[in-house]
Design brief:
about 150 residues; mainly alpha; about 30% helix
Length: about 150
């Protein structure tokens, strides 16, 4: 496996637009019902429980692949369930992210993600579900959180 950015998830997600990552990457902790959580990105060993226990991450590490699409079993049932989970509409973009990484390379994909997940008015990093910039109040085209999620 090649050294990769900690924010390039095995599944193709960009951790830099995750609220937990954004609020804790600098060393802080985010309070949750289960206690404080911290995240340094998918490829680190500092993750909230839901990422630390990710079956896709465990599988990729076990098989020694940098990204899920490099596995001979892609897309497996676990990846399809992940992609299609209605609680996380941004997961539907993971296959396209993997294609972009394969075509352009991780560094170029990271640059695209960094630009996409910033407020166009002030440059503040933003999360998937953000609809308004925390810094300037500008409108953001984030994903809509499904009802009940």
């Amino acid at each position: 496996m090649t050294a990769r950015s900690p924010v390039s998830a095995y599944c193709g997600l960009y951790c830099g637009s995750c609220r937990t990552y954004l609020e804790t990457a600098d060393g802080g902790a985010l309070p949750t019902d289960a206690g404080p959580v911290t995240c340094r990105g998918c490829r680190s060993d500092v993750n909230p429980p839901w990422c630390a226990e990710c079956v896709l991450k465990a599988c990729a590490r076990r098989k020694g692949v940098d990204f899920c699409d490099l596995c001979g079993e892609f897309p497996c049932a676990d990846f399809v369930a992940f992609r299609d989970d209605p609680r996380y509409p941004y997961h539907t973009e993971a296959p396209e992210h993997l294609r972009t990484i394969a075509e352009l390379g991780e560094r170029a994909w990271l640059a695209l993600m960094e630009a996409r997940w910033r407020c166009t008015a002030c440059g503040q990093a933003r999360a998937w579900f953000d609809r308004e910039c925390e810094r300037c109040g500008g409108s953001l085209p984030g994903f809509t959180r499904p009802a009940g999620a």
